[in-house]
Amino acid sequence: QVQLVESGGQLVQAGGSLRLSCAASGRTFSSYSMGWFRQAAGKEREFVAAIDWNGGSTVYADSVKGRFTISRDNAKNTVYLQMNSLKPEDTAVYYCAADQRRYLSATYYRANEYEHWGQGTQVTVSS
Fold first, then answer.
1. What percent of the chain has pLDDT over 90?
2. CA torsion sign, 76 to 45 to 12 to 58?
3. How many CA atoms lie within 13 A of 119 on its CB side?
4. Which residues pair with 123 in a beta bridge?
5. For a Cys staple, 50 with which of 11, 22, 35, 74, CB 3.0–4.6 Å?
6. What is the chain's mean pLDDT, rounded?
7. CA-to-CA distance for 118 and 24, rounded, in angstroms?
């Protein structure tokens, strides 16, 4: 069982940067692949980025590619999302999620591939 707690969300101006963190409990964190999703008000939850168990493979949504970077530190049981060049359309609640498989599935972008979820952290980008 993995419990996830996100942090780092806040109000930021367009063009700014934020780093989100997701701290995981449990000794099996290093064997999980991890994902970040986001949900804007009135919209469905959407995939942002994912990383496999050792950081050897990362994938991104087209909307964030080149601006966001996902990484992990297994010694600290933490996954990060570095967000640069933020836009107002990045405003959303950001969630991290854990998939018990080490490697990214073929459908890593689907929320139902992930068994464990955090409570979310709000990111607001002002124009």
1. 95
2. positive
3. 5
4. 92
5. 35
6. 96
7. 9
Question: What does DSSP assign to residue 53?
Answer: T
Q: Cβ(50)–Cβ(36) under 8 Å?
A: yes
Cα distance between residue 127 and residue 112, in whole Å: 33
Question: Side chain identity at 123, as an amino acid letter?
Answer: V
Give me the pLDDT at residue 51, please: 98
Quote the CA–CA distance of 34 and 11 in Å, as a whole number.
Answer: 25
Tell me the C-alpha distance between 94 and 90, whole Å. 10
pLDDT category at 27 given cuts 50, 70, 90 is confident
Q: CA Rg, the chain, in Å?
A: 13
Structure tokens at 85: 């060049």
Rounded Cα distance between 58 and 43, Å, is 25
Distance from C-alpha of 95 to C-alpha of 47, rounded to nearest angstrom: 10
- DSSP tag of 35: E
